[in-house]
Amino acid sequence: MQRERPHRVALVGAISGYNDTEPAPGPRNLFRAAAQRLTIRGTLVNDHLHFFPEYIGKASAWLADGTLRTTETVTEGLENAPTAFLGMMRGANTGKMLVRL
């Protein structure tokens, strides 16, 4: 009998919980995760820096031809930078939070 390959879950996006005042919700049934032989592995961009030169070449072409699109929240004026920063910390932005000078 051949066993199935374990399932994998990549953990990304931890910045959203940096300022949490309570523990983030987690798996509700760890026994099921064990029974499914689930593998949970965190990943950081630093783990893949060797791909960066290749990515820049591809991503710049994708941005130019419209294949890759970005979304950001833009706040006007340096005087609004503190408000933009606080909004970013609350998750009020979509994509990058930018301040146009």
TrEMBL record:
Molecular function in Gene Ontology: oxidoreductase activity, acting on the CH-CH group of donors, NAD or NADP as acceptor
Transmembrane segments: none
Protein name per UniProt: NADP-dependent oxidoreductase
Organism expressing this protein natively: Actinomadura barringtoniae
